[in-house]
Each structure stands twice: as C-alpha cells, then as structure tokens.
Design brief:
37% of the residues lie in helices and 14% in strands. The chain is α/β, with parallel strands linked by helices. The strands form two sheets. A four-stranded parallel beta sheet has the order 1-4-5-6, with helices on both faces. Helix 1 crosses helix 8 and helix 4 (141-154) runs parallel beside helix 5. The chain is globular.
C-alpha cells in the first residue's frame, strides 16, 4: 500500500512516490521520535511501488516485496498511493498486487513523467498538511524510483527506499542508484528492517501479525537480498 495524518519533520526530506505502481502508507496514532521511524510513534510511513504489468524475471523480488508491504500496510493502517507508467502503452500495474481490485489506494494515477510526484499524487499528499515519511518499492531503480525519491526529498519529506523492493532491467543499475539515493539523503534499508523499525516494540498489538508476515515471506526476502548482494 488512505493517508490519515502527517508528521512535520525537522529534516528536509519528502517521501511519497511510485513510478509505475506506487504505494504509500501512514499511521494515524503518531508522534515523532527524533529521526527514528516507528509507526506507533509517528504519523506517516509510506510504501510506494513501481511495477509494470509484465515484469521480466529480475523484477520478481520487487513484486514479492511489494506484496509484503501492501499486506503490512493493511496491518499497520498505512495508506497506499500508486501510479502506472503510460498505461495505454505499457499496461496496468502488475495484477499480482491487486491494485485495481482487492487493494484500494488513496490515490492511483497514470503518468508519463518518470517521477511519481505528478499533480494528482502531489494533491493527495498535500492533504497530510506537511512533510511525511514514505517508503518506495518498484522499478526502475535508476529512473522512476530515483526521480520520485529526489522530488520528495526536495519537498521536505523523509524517504525510505527498500533495497529488496526495487529492481531494474539492468541489474547493475540497482546498487548504483541505491548508493546515489543514500548520498542524497534517502534512507536505504530492507523491508524487514523497515517493518521492525516501524513497530519499534514487540509489545505493540500489530507485532504478531507483522512477525507472521515476515516469517511467511522469509525465503523470498532472502533470495531477493542474495541477488542484491551479487550485484
């Protein structure tokens, strides 16, 4: 994965983007805790995706991570924002994510720009009332993901890019893009790392469901990270 509240951050970071299928989420009960992301203590974590309808095999890990994050967004009450890249020519976001049927994003826009930060998404994010914290997953890491992240950072949002949730037709582009985004101020992490940081405490009521989700997707996550480490 609708937005509920926003969190004003002391940092010049902006996060909400998804080049081809973009998902964002944030939590209602939120209080900022420095620069540490905890869904139960801040107002707006946001996952985003950028997936085409018929991705090549090296995008399968991106799809798997996107599916996990969509399920997590439902557990953690986080809104989803999605975009498609030139739907008339490239088709809808991959059907495995269910964005056209089972999942109901807070905003779902078509675009030709490479960044997800198009007017429809910008307007939806503006309803938060200020900078938020967002997570990006999808493709292409060096094009749509990068340009979305840079646009969000430039507008004062905090951006999280999930290393196991982004891909590219040229696998070698991924580590280059991730290194650049880290230098630009984005937080590059993993889906599991993000989810546990988001909860912050095993005592929260969502812990059991999220831990079960992590366990359920453990093998797919390991495969994605092993592939990433070989790049």
């Amino acid at each position: 994965m609708p937005p509920v509240s926003s969190h004003h951050l002391p940092l010049a970071h902006d996060a909400h983007h998804h080049p081809t299928g973009y998902v964002t989420s944030k939590k209602t009960s939120a209080k900022p805790s420095g620069n540490t992301l905890k869904c139960n203590n801040i107002s707006s974590p946001v996952p985003l995706l950028t997936l085409h309808s018929l991705p090549p095999s090296n995008h399968l890990s991106s799809i798997s991570t996107a599916q996990k994050m969509i399920k997590a967004s439902q557990i953690l009450s986080m809104p989803i924002y999605a975009t498609t890249q030139n739907r008339a020519r490239l088709g809808p976001t991959c059907t495995e994510l269910g964005l056209d049927h089972d999942v109901h994003p807070a905003a779902h826009a078509d675009k030709t720009a490479f960044s997800m930060y198009v007017p429809a998404i910008a307007a939806a994010l503006a309803e938060s009332g200020g900078p938020v914290e967002a997570v990006i997953v999808g493709i292409e890491a060096h094009i749509c993901v990068t340009q979305t992240a840079l646009d969000l950072l430039a507008r004062g949002h905090r951006v999280y890019v999930l290393a196991d949730g982004v891909g590219s037709c040229n696998a070698e582009e991924v580590p280059i893009a991730l290194r650049r985004l880290a230098r630009e101020g984005a937080v590059v992490t993993t889906s599991e790392g993000f989810l546990y940081e988001c909860m912050g405490d095993a005592g929260v009521e969502e812990f059991k469901a999220v831990a079960g989700l992590v366990k359920e997707s453990k093998e797919r996550t390991r495969e994605a990270l092993q592939t990433l480490c070989k790049m």
